[in-house]
Amino acid sequence: MNEDLPHRYPIFIRLKPAFAGDGEFDTDMWARQRDSTPAPYRIQRQGKDILLPFYDDADDLIDVTWSGDGQADRFIRDTLQEYRRQHPDAGPHEGAPAPAIALLPRPDNTYNPDAVSAADPNRDLSDEQRYLGYLPDSDLEEIGWTTIPTLADLASQWGGQVRCYGWVTPDSILLDLPLDKVHAAATTFLATYGITLDPLPNPHETGAILVDAALTGTTWDKPPHPIGSLTLTPRRQGLSLTDGGKPIGHLSNDTRLAVFDERHRERVIAELAMQNLPVTPMATPHATAANGPIPARYELHPSASTGWVIETTADIPTEALPTHGPRHKRGEENIIAAVAYYEPDKKTLWVQADQLVPTAACYAARVGFEVTTVRIAKHPWGLRTEIAEHRLIPYETVPFDTTDDPGRRTLLSHHRTSVPPESLAHHYAWADHPAPEKRRGHPNILAARERLDRTRTKLFGGDHTLTDNLTDPLTPCRLCGHQAATFTTPTCTEPVTYCRTCILTACNGLGTNRAHTSTAVAEIATLEFGGIAMLPDQLTTLHLNPDTPVTPEVLDRLLLLRFAVNRVLPWTRILTAAGLTPNGIPTARGTIIQARDGHLCLSLQEKAVCEFLYQHGIAHDREPHYPTDTEVNPNGRWRADWQLADGTLVEMWGMPKDKQYAQRMYAKQQLARKRNLTVLELTADDLPRLADRFAPWIPIDRTPQRWTPPATPTPKPRTRTPRTRTPRTHTPGKVHATNIAAAEERLARAGRALELQRHGHTRAEIAAALSTTPDTVKVLLQDARFYEDPTSNPERLDLAFAAITAVAAGKSKTAFHAESNRSERLTSRAWRDANTLDRQTAPD
After folding, report:
1. Cβ proximity of 627 and 676 under 8 Å
2. Is the dihedral of CA 468, 472, 473, 479 positive or negative?
3. pLDDT one-digit tens code per residue, 789-830
4. Domain limits, the chain
5. What is the 3-state secondary structure (H, E, C) of 505-541?
6. Which segments carry the region annotation Disordered (predicted)?
7. Which of 240, 301, 305, 344 is nearest to 438 (CA)?
8. How many C-alpha atoms does 555 have within 13 Å on its Cβ side?
9. Phi and psi of 116, rounded to 5°?
10. Which of 196, 281, 381, 831 could covalently link to 207 via disulfide, CB atoms 3.0 to 4.6 Å apart?
């Protein structure tokens, strides 16, 4: 038994299977010994660690949100294997207690700096390697955003961490945290060390502020603006209505009309009727509805469930806004808040406060809701604690098209073999028949959405044509079975049907892990790109040859493979894992990659442009010289990226926002103007629309659609005299000797810290020995482990390699920070890592 754990809590307790048949957690199966539970709930110090105690209530288990990456898989596997070793008669689907799960604050989380992750308790691993999943934001809010971080800060002074108990099943990690008790217990525990924990916000005070703000937004303070003709564009659950770009409202699939200014309702209904688009008529108002003026600043949205959310767009005072939690929820002076929720099956209107009932009921009648019952929150703005929170979330803000399982959709099971095994398991369920659509909608509106939808153009190019079957029922989508329009495309031998959701998912990809992404990328490269690497942006368009169209089954596979590609993962690492970068040659200017026409390119962006020119028959040469100029180009060394047959120069500006890069770019532009040169200038934003930028040069016998020809033997590259590379005598970024000495001293301190830790010293003891703080020791230990074995922290190594590449390309640290989309702390560390690794690998 682990001596750090309470002796009253056995490492593994014999339990029945963790879940009942309906998928709910079965409290009877959490069969614990009553004398093993501390009562009352008290947080304890155990050695160096702070332990959140075992608690006897299965209802307080919280589910960790995890992405199915390898770390969580391994932790679950190892925990279950050890449990089954001790209990050979355990069933294959039985869960097991996990008595040592760490809780780590993750201020590096770009979405929510107050995030906390569940983690493997092994502190020899990096935070990324220990990561098991994030605690839900709603649970952290109830515990208190600063509770776990404050406990963790205290534990770090002892060289320890915060731990709690948990429960592991084959597909989930649950934490034993009674949400209503953790904050109070932490307050008591921290007080014994003279630390005051931030109090939980008073929901009654915040609710009263929100109610007052919502009330101020229920009357009009100016006359309505005139509207002209309506423009309709598709949205996830209906049509958006605009007038000259100004939002007017939206029409849901099932004919509910929401207008942002209710005084425009009659006019908008008349406009829609002219386009044969029906609108639900107004209903008889409930007895509580106001008889006064038309309610102002209300909006209607379908919720993530089957109901409807009525929202206010009133200005919310700063004191009612959260100061912790996700970044997008902080500091917004104008937010949309749920004033009421309507349950269609019960004809019930839930309202946040009694003062809001008259206008909410009036608005409900105007949008056609038949209300028989009105229910009011027990305390102001407290509906989220009384009804399921997802009911108050607008459907349009939910990342996925929900079916019976929010966030998890259905694909037709005969496609299961089209993608790598399990690559979509966390996002989709396989079914022989499509899941019923909760919001099927009116056929006229569905047909209008399909007719106006432009997502097909993004993936299939401009040469697709809708067939004439825009009637109800529409044709089932080939991938998920939901209704959509059928269309033809020159790249396919038959008409095909794909819904908007599936097309968007193919364009954007899902949050799959690195292994699944690299496998899918390798298959796409083989089927579509001739086995050559591609950029993530190139996956938003199918690269197929209209002269040799493929079957619908091949299209199905190419779309589903795109589902499995996570576009936010480090792309160089993905290409390497997919086996697509063996011919890349690292140089001081970058990594040379060979394009299909044999030209050598210094980036995947250049390669994408070069292959586009080749594919479309546009004659081009690589790296032509600019003319010599005594003022700006006296040596005649400047080169453009390409030259077209008519003399036009083409520049792919890779870092236009970098100060040093921009100076050279502006100098080239000045020279071009001085010499009357024609220069076509491109940036990364132009990659998806190269067909438009190069339209004047595409031969008339070529299709304007972007495509990649079938794999052909790679043309022999042009012969060039290899340049002799002089070994570097300095570090990247022109690091001076003083900085090198400081870096070497820091590296030595990191090594000393790791040596002391391996001899059993605590972080506080190491800090005293090195005359520094425990927090600095933590960073030194992380550095020492990384430099000892860089592969121990793949995420950090990826960013370090990116920094090395940036230095080789002549980029500044500022430019690297701007392009990496990472925090300044992480990019500064990567820049330091690049110099350290370069010194470690440089020739003597």
Report:
1. no
2. positive
3. 676 676 787 788 778 777 766 778 888 877 777 777 888 888
4. 27-200, 207-397, 410-529+546-555, 737-841
5. HHHHCCCCCHHHHHHHHHHHHHHHCCCCCCCHHHHHC
6. 701-733
7. 305
8. 27
9. -130, 135
10. 381
Please indicate whether residue 726 or residue 460 has the higher confidence score (pLDDT): 460
Smallest CA-to-CA distance from 261 within 290, 210, 220, 233 is with: 220
Alpha-carbon distance values, 578 to 421, 520, 574, 639, 791 (Å): 16, 8, 6, 33, 18
User: Of 757, 770, 739, 749, whose CA–CA distance to 834 is shortest?
Assistant: 739
Assess whether the previous peptide bond of 476 is cis (omega < 30° from 0): no
**Rounded CA separation 102/619 (Å):** 60
User: Torsion over CA of 629, 633, 635 and 636, rounded to 10 degrees?
Assistant: -80
What pLDDT was estimated at residue 51? Answer: 93
pLDDT attached to residue 558: 96
What residue spans of 146-246 are helical by DSSP H?
147-157, 179-191, 203-216
For tokens 């970098």, what's the residue? 658
- The one-letter code for the residue type at 478 is R
Nearest to 504 by CA among 520, 469, 480: 480
Task: Please tell me which of 378-382, 480-484, 719-723, 759-763 the model is most confident about, judged by mean pLDDT.
Answer: 480-484
Contacts 24+ apart (CB under 8 A), 573-579: 573/514, 573/794, 573/798, 574/514, 574/517, 574/518, 574/521, 575/518, 575/521, 575/533, 577/514, 577/515, 577/518, 578/518, 578/519, 578/521, 578/522, 578/525, 579/522
Buried residues in 125-159 as b, exposed as e (16+ CB within 10 A): bbbbbbbbbbbebebbbbbbbbbbbbbbbbbbbbb
Q: Residues of 571-582 as b/e, b for ≥16 C-beta within 10 angstroms?
A: bbbbbbbbebbe
Say how far apart CA 827 and CA 824 lie, in whole Å.
Answer: 5
668: which 2 tokens?
């080239």
Task: Round to whole Å and give the CA distance between 436 and 780.
Answer: 55
CA dihedral 362, 365, 370, 375 (to 10 degrees): -20
Whether 724 shows a pLDDT value over 60: the answer reads no
pLDDT value at residue 146: 93
Tell me the per-residue pLDDT of 528-543, one tens digit each, with 9 for 90 and over.
888 878 888 889 889 8
Quick check: 615 and 604 in contact, CB under 8 A? no
Count of beta carbons in the 10 Å neighbourhood of residue 400: 16
Per-residue confidence at 13, pLDDT binned at 50, 70, 90? Answer: very low
Encoding tokens for residue 730? 């300095």
Q: Which of 98-107, 726-735, 777-786 has the lowest mean pLDDT?
A: 726-735
DSSP characters over 479-513? TT--EE-EEE-TTBSS-EE--HHHHHHHHH-----
Residue with tokens 């793949």: 794
Q: Is the distance from CB of 160 to CB of 47 less than 8 angstroms? A: yes
Supply the pTM of this predicted model.
Answer: 0.54
Cα–chain-centroid distance for residue 564? 14
How far does CA 131 lie from the centroid of its chain? 17
Read off the pLDDT of residues 488-510 as tens digits, 9 standing for 90 and up.
Answer: 888 899 999 998 889 999 998 88
Q: What CA–CA distance (Å, rounded) separates 319 from 209?
A: 8
pLDDT for res 15:
30
**Cα distance between residue 367 and residue 352, in whole Å:** 19
pLDDT at 130 over 60: yes
Give the C-alpha separation, 704 to 616, whole Å. Answer: 8
316-334: b (≥16 Cβ within 10 Å) or e: beeebeeebbeeeeeeeee
CB 795 within 8 A of CB 786: no
Report the C-alpha gap between 215 and 466 in whole angstroms. Answer: 48
Q: Which range has highest mean pLDDT (246-250, 391-395, 726-730)?
A: 246-250
